[in-house]
Amino acid sequence: MTRTEPTLSELSPVESFREFRDNGLRLDGSTLGLENIHDYEPGGHHPVEIGHVLNGRFKVINKLGNGGSSNVWLCHDIQQETGQYFAVKILMADNSIEDCPELRVYRLLDRGLGKSEAAANLCLPVARFDIKGPNGRHFAIVYPVLGPQVSSLRCMLGKDDPGRELRQVCFQAVQAMATLHSYGICHGDFRPANVLARVTGLDSLTEDQVTQAVGSPRTTKVVQYPQVNSWPSTAPRDLIRSIDWGSIDAGDAGIAFVSTEACIAHFGESYDYILDKRLGIESDIWALGCTLFEIRMGRPLFVIPHDDPDEHLARMVEILGKFPEPWWSTTWEVRRRWFSDEMEGRSRTRPISLRFPLGGDNKPYSNLNDVPIARPPIPRSIQDALTYTPADNTDPCQISGHRTISIEETALFADLLKKMFRYVPEQRIAPEDILEHPWFRL
Ligand SMILES: Nc1ncnc2c1ncn2[C@@H]1O[C@H](COP(=O)(O)OP(=O)(O)OP(=O)(O)O)[C@@H](O)[C@H]1O
């Protein structure tokens, strides 16, 4: 039996978060990790197919990623003899406006940051052009090629514990932040997803060799429902899945191209702190602390099951201790959902419940006997957080047999993190002092 057209029940439902209309297109497969097919409409994405040459110069050979407002393509520069590879980020047409967040990165170049040696760890644009297509005019920005988040390197490096390499990656992340701050720029969105490992060594390879290293483009067919005679020029015939760096094994050829060089991306939230004094740069330090923890440990410090800000605060108090006044007694009133005012030891308040999530009615367990006992204790200090095994045992590094860090390193790393996680923003350690910390000299 030949299949011409899938039935509606075989087609994946497509969620639409934007205002674009249902354009009658569906995916013949899972939508997971792909851009929304409804975004291929005037104002939305530019339709790109593998092999397309952008601006007469950048030949698309694979896809690197997609975000809320763009797709990022792995391209071969066919105009230069050296044939370098670049990431070309194409913004949706509606987002391609002069004051869009993506272009804020150019303020870093205006400040002369591109010429600074320390900019080696910042992902800065190397060229820019416009594309006119069926869906409008799109900004296309050319960047160096980056790979996986550095927080996943711990598992990818394939060593028992690649501590030295990971501390070096952390050092580069701090250095990048120190550089930004020294130029009066606050990153504003520092998190593991924006610290990627640089990909090196592709430039001498043919397209076939690159494909061998990172895998062939993985396509999902786009189908029309109901089928009409002509294919709309606004949409591609296939959507492409991004290169999955995580699935490249430590022994595979592709892994050799993923360096342990950290590169900070995404300056869309960055701003000039000279105008508003120091406000915000201390938030960068807090975010940097969370990022260092995740790079070194391969898992987040604060795991918040319900994405609830108060649960987040509760988890912080459990690990870092009580907030200073008046935050504790007055500002954060709902703390009573989690903590009694009884003191436990010298400075710790007693948690009503050590268990997340709360009981069925969203209240703490009033009787400790109600708390399921099979869960290991939740960390009560940074040291605990560094040494404990996640309750659900889903830490991929633990599963693949990585060891926890040494007692000596735990003490030094905890000391550094405590200085970064001071509640009073002005008391947080500055990036240049972080770089001097003995944890980096282990
Ligand atoms: N230079 C690059 N090299 C390799 N991959 C990249 C590069 N820049 C971005 N990516 C990948 O593309 C994905 C989308 O990029 P990005 O988050 O910058 O898009 P965005 O549309 O600006 O996102 P959002 O609007 O949701 O914040 C990233 O998660 C990353 O995986």
From TrEMBL:
<dbReference type="InterPro" id="IPR011009">
    <property type="entry name" value="Kinase-like_dom_sf"/>
</dbReference>
<feature type="domain" description="Protein kinase">
    <location>
        <begin position="58"/>
        <end position="440"/>
    </location>
</feature>
<feature type="binding site">
    <location>
        <position position="89"/>
    </location>
    <ligand>
        <name>ATP</name>
    </ligand>
</feature>
<dbReference type="Pfam" id="PF00069">
    <property type="entry name" value="Pkinase"/>
</dbReference>
<dbReference type="InterPro" id="IPR017441">
    <property type="entry name" value="Protein_kinase_ATP_BS"/>
</dbReference>
<keyword id="KW-0418">Kinase</keyword>
<dbReference type="GO" id="GO:0005524">
    <property type="term" value="F:ATP binding"/>
</dbReference>
<protein>
    <submittedName>
        <fullName>Kinase-like domain-containing protein</fullName>
    </submittedName>
</protein>
<dbReference type="InterPro" id="IPR051175">
    <property type="entry name" value="CLK_kinases"/>
</dbReference>
<keyword id="KW-0067">ATP-binding</keyword>
<dbReference type="GO" id="GO:0005634">
    <property type="term" value="C:nucleus"/>
</dbReference>
<dbReference type="GO" id="GO:0043484">
    <property type="term" value="P:regulation of RNA splicing"/>
</dbReference>
<dbReference type="GO" id="GO:0004674">
    <property type="term" value="F:protein serine/threonine kinase activity"/>
</dbReference>
<dbReference type="InterPro" id="IPR000719">
    <property type="entry name" value="Prot_kinase_dom"/>
</dbReference>
<keyword id="KW-0808">Transferase</keyword>
<keyword id="KW-0547">Nucleotide-binding</keyword>
<keyword id="KW-0723">Serine/threonine-protein kinase</keyword>
